[in-house]
Design goal:
With 234 residues, this protein is mainly α. It has helices at 3-20, 24-34, 46-56, 60-68, 72-81, 89-96, 102-111, 119-126, 132-148, 156-168, 174-187, 192-206, 211-224, 227-233.
């Protein structure tokens, strides 16, 4: 049996597994409750998707094929099946163009892309994109890097990222501004220097005449100004 036929069989088996566990209630709640509006969803809880991923193991070719199936849950599954070491920059760009909801954006960034060597480059490349979910991906990925990145000891890349946050701060689209807010708050939690720089930016934004910038600044100040954080970085 060829590798392709084996992959095709595994995709079919995975999709069948997901279909059998789809729930109408979960599917019906995705839009009204979570703001995830997609045409091709099965209604499978994330815990079941993660359980299937453990059965499948890491498989880069399988992840690509699952993504191309176009099913919401199959795309979530790729975040746990793909191998970060094999993810390419071109693949990230290709998948980003398919983004149509925050659920897939955040899951892929949180569980896969922030572990790739291309992560910072994609933050910079996507931060000025026009499509809402591609731009959200830049800041969701930055937030995930700020949370998970243990290899970068220097604050410099994150200090540079504050410039990207400042430039995007006036974008009032819901999923962009929430992504920018998430990034600002998590960058500010990485170190004393980044906390001070993020607080300074937040204060500037909070005093802006632009409503979205004010909202962003005030939300960040509430989070970064919590007593426990202030004590930690004092």
């Amino acid at each position: 049996m060829s590798v392709r036929s084996t992959t095709d069989t595994r995709v079919a088996d995975a999709l069948g597994w997901l279909e059998r566990r789809g729930r109408k209630r979960v599917r019906d709640e995705m839009g009204p409750r979570y703001g995830i509006f997609v045409a091709n969803a099965l209604g499978v809880p994330i815990r079941d998707i993660q359980a299937l991923a453990k059965q499948l193991g890491r498989d880069h070719e399988l992840a690509e094929a699952l993504w191309n199936a176009g099913v919401y849950e199959a795309r979530l599954l790729t975040a746990y099946v793909d191998d970060p070491a094999l993810v390419t920059a071109a693949q990230m760009d290709r998948w980003a163009k398919d983004f149509d909801n925050w659920g897939v954006v955040d899951t892929v960034c949180f569980s896969l892309w922030d572990r790739t060597p291309h992560a910072f480059a994609k933050v910079r490349a996507w931060a000025t994109r026009k499509p809402e979910f591609e731009k959200r991906a830049a800041f969701a990925l930055l937030a995930c890097l700020a949370l998970h990145d243990k290899a970068t000891k220097d604050d410099a890349p994150y200090l540079d990222s504050l410039k990207l946050i400042e430039r995007a701060a006036a974008d009032d689209r819901n999923f962009v501004k929430k992504g920018v807010s998430w990034a600002l708050r998590l960058v500010g939690r990485r170190s004393r220097g980044l906390h001070a720089a993020s607080m300074a930016l937040s204060k500037t934004l909070a005093e802006s005449e632009n409503a979205t910038e004010r909202w962003l600044g005030k939300e960040a100040l509430k989070d970064l100004g919590k007593p426990a954080l202030m004590k930690k970085f004092r």
